[in-house]
């Protein structure tokens, strides 16, 4: 029962729907007039810290932040 | 005490599932979800414990489908950061589905539509409100409620035409020079989104 439906080009290239949707949203935000553009780009800011674990202990965390000075 | 409970539970569950697997009712038509034989077996085994709740008992019942088609469409248009329209009664909505511009009137067939970058217009009397939607989904329910969700939706006045032209030229050039599949896909997405914005501004 293999599906023979045509897949969208982005799926065929290995991209997921969420990635596709976020790229589309980003492109639209980049084409806005000021001041809407600034508000919109602030929505894309992320701030998180990742640490891999080895032997039951967390290693050094990696901080990814778009807000400067934090 | 509880060892017996699982035997009694599986007995009543298999009895119910064997007949329900062939004829499934729609969720809007199901009667009350309490299974009396199960509750009785439970009370025999564990009289001091309440019978377990099922997920259905926590759900609000779905609004039933009206027998006659309603005159207005109820639209809920939401974005991740704001609720643009909430329970608004309108005459028609035109959504940019991947299969083309789809007009939604009250009484539309229940549909789930994936949206492509394009214009969504909400028609209320002579009022037409247009948004450019980046992508999303539209859920059209049997009771003439339309739930439209988009990641980014902007009124057309907020789009800068010169940046759209520049982006279109950029991505067309990237598409020509792309090497890997992923680069080609990203450039293709860029071209599609910018062409849609261009068409939206000029059309």
TrEMBL record, chain A:
Function: Mitochondrial membrane ATP synthase (F(1)F(0) ATP synthase or Complex V) produces ATP from ADP in the presence of a proton gradient across the membrane which is generated by electron transport complexes of the respiratory chain. F-type ATPases consist of two structural domains, F(1) - containing the extramembraneous catalytic core, and F(0) - containing the membrane proton channel, linked together by a central stalk and a peripheral stalk. During catalysis, ATP synthesis in the catalytic domain of F(1) is coupled via a rotary mechanism of the central stalk subunits to proton translocation.
Top-rank lineage group of the source organism: Eukaryota
Keyword hit for Transport: yes
GO CC annotation: mitochondrial inner membrane; proton-transporting ATP synthase complex
Protein name, entry field: ATP synthase subunit epsilon, mitochondrial
Protein species of origin: Brassica campestris
Gene Ontology biological process: proton motive force-driven mitochondrial ATP synthesis
Main location, first listed in the record: mitochondrion
Subcellular location: Mitochondrion inner membrane
Gene3D superfamilies to which the protein is assigned, alphabetical: ATP synthase, F1 complex, epsilon subunit superfamily, mitochondrial
Gene Ontology MF term list: proton-transporting ATP synthase activity, rotational mechanism
Record family assignment: Belongs to the eukaryotic ATPase epsilon family.
Annotated InterPro entries: ATP_synth_F1_esu_mt (IPR006721), ATP_synth_F1_esu_sf_mt (IPR036742)
This protein's UniProt keywords: ATP synthesis, CF(1), Hydrogen ion transport, Ion transport, Membrane, Mitochondrion, Mitochondrion inner membrane, Transport
Classification via Pfam families: ATP-synt_Eps (PF04627)
Subunit structure: F-type ATPases have 2 components, CF(1) - the catalytic core - and CF(0) - the membrane proton channel. CF(1) has five subunits: alpha(3), beta(3), gamma(1), delta(1), epsilon(1). CF(0) has three main subunits: a, b and c.
Automatic annotation (TrEMBL), chain B:
Keywords: ATP synthesis, CF(1), Hydrogen ion transport, Ion transport, Membrane, Mitochondrion, Mitochondrion inner membrane, Transit peptide, Transport
The UniProt record lists the keyword rRNA processing: no
One Pfam match: ATP-synt_DE_N
Domain ATP synthase F1 complex delta/epsilon subunit N-terminal: 73-145
Subcellular location as annotated: Mitochondrion inner membrane
Entry annotated with the keyword Membrane: yes
Region (Disordered): 45-65
GO MF term list: proton-transporting ATP synthase activity, rotational mechanism
Quaternary structure note: F-type ATPases have 2 components, CF(1) - the catalytic core - and CF(0) - the membrane proton channel. CF(1) has five subunits: alpha(3), beta(3), gamma(1), delta(1), epsilon(1). CF(0) has three main subunits: a, b and c.
Family: Belongs to the ATPase epsilon chain family.
HAMAP family to which the protein is assigned, alphabetical: ATP_synth_epsil_bac
Protein's UniProt name: ATP synthase subunit delta', mitochondrial
């Amino acid at each position: 029962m293999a599906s023979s439906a045509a897949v969208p080009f982005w799926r065929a290239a290995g991209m997921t729907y969420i990635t596709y949707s976020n790229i589309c949203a980003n492109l639209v935000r980049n084409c806005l007039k000021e001041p809407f553009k600034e508000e919109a780009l602030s929505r894309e800011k992320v701030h998180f810290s990742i640490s891999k674990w080895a032997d039951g202990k967390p290693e050094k965390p990696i901080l990814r932040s778009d807000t400067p000075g934090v | 005490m509880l060892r017996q409970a699982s035997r009694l539970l599986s007995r009543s569950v298999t009895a119910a599932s064997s007949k329900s697997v062939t004829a499934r009712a729609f969720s809007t038509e199901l009667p009350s979800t309490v299974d009396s034989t199960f509750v009785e077996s439970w009370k025999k085994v564990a009289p001091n414990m309440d019978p377990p709740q099922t997920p259905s008992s926590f759900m609000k019942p779905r609004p039933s489908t009206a027998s006659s088609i309603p005159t207005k469409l109820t639209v809920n248009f939401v974005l991740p950061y704001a609720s643009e329209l909430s329970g608004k009664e309108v005459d028609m909505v035109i959504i940019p589905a991947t299969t083309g511009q789809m007009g939604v009137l009250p009484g539309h067939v229940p549909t789930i539509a994936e949206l492509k970058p394009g214009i969504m217009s909400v028609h209320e009397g002579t009022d037409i409100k247009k948004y450019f939607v980046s992508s999303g989904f539209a859920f059209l329910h049997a009771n003439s409620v339309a739930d439209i969700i988009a990641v980014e939706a902007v009124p057309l006045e907020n789009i800068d035409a010169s940046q759209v032209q520049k982006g279109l030229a950029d991505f067309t050039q990237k598409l020509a020079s792309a090497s890997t599949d992923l680069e080609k896909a990203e450039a293709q997405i860029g071209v599609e989104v910018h062409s849609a914005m261009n068409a939206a501004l000029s059309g």
